Amino acid sequence: MKILITGATGFLGTSLCSLLQSQGHDLVSLNSKNCDLTRSDSLLKFNNLAYDQVYHLAAWTQAGDFCLYHPGEQWIMNQKMNTNVLDWWQKYQPQAKFICMGTSCAYDNDLSLVEENYLTGTPISSLFTYAMTKRMLYAGLLALNKQYSLNYLCLVPSTLYGAGYHTDGRQMHFIFDLIRKIIRGKLYNEPVILWGDGTQSRELVFVEDFAKIAVKLAQCTNNELINIGAGEEYTIQHFAKLICNQVGYDFNKIQFDSSRYVGAKSKCLVTNKLKQSLPDNDLTPLELGLTKTIEWFWQEQEKLVPIY
To answer: Per the database record, which ranges form the NAD-dependent epimerase/dehydratase domain (predicted)?
Structure first.
């Protein structure tokens, strides 16, 4: 197949491109250097091919408390990008199946995190703007499907982890931040200070598992919003203990700063629809996934500068 991918050099994009290339697909890989999606004409130069699939992974955001300080920019940047990609799809590539990423923060945490509630209630205030841009992206899919019968798939991931995460100074998702801090505590005897009291809970999906699931769903599922999660969550303390055991760092040395930003206290996606679509789907066990991620961090330790 001929496949165009935005955000191709990001954490998920790198893993997805590697998988699709191994399957023999013809890829056009876009990133911020070769295509500025905030420009309405940026995709026109890629119209020389008729694509079978378009994966839209690009988004303007970072982990941690980034969303607290950039809500206006996030709204403008992501709305431009999403609108331009959807407009290009409808006008020039209507034959392509459009696969894009939602976000778990779009859910109202007072409701069950099931797909039927994706557009219901109010997202957490600290992530409200980014969450609403992802809701608007999904609303765009619904509208284009209704009027033009365009074919889409929207995937809502829990936190992804694995080797190859960015080490360019941006804020990291919690699991990478935990590993980085604990490794630096081991190497340099730095204090390990984690945000929150450690009781907040999260679930993880290994990035290679997510890529495989996305590709399988793109082959068999049309016009759906589907959660992709592990179906179980653990506390930050639990993750920290597992990492300490593998790194050889004393968990009792860890300090918890309950004054720092932690986001939602709990976030675990309901995955019944995923299980119905892919009943034989197997995920990488948490301990194995952490081992692979930690091994990569050891290899990249010189890049693991402290971020405060």
So the answer is: 3-229
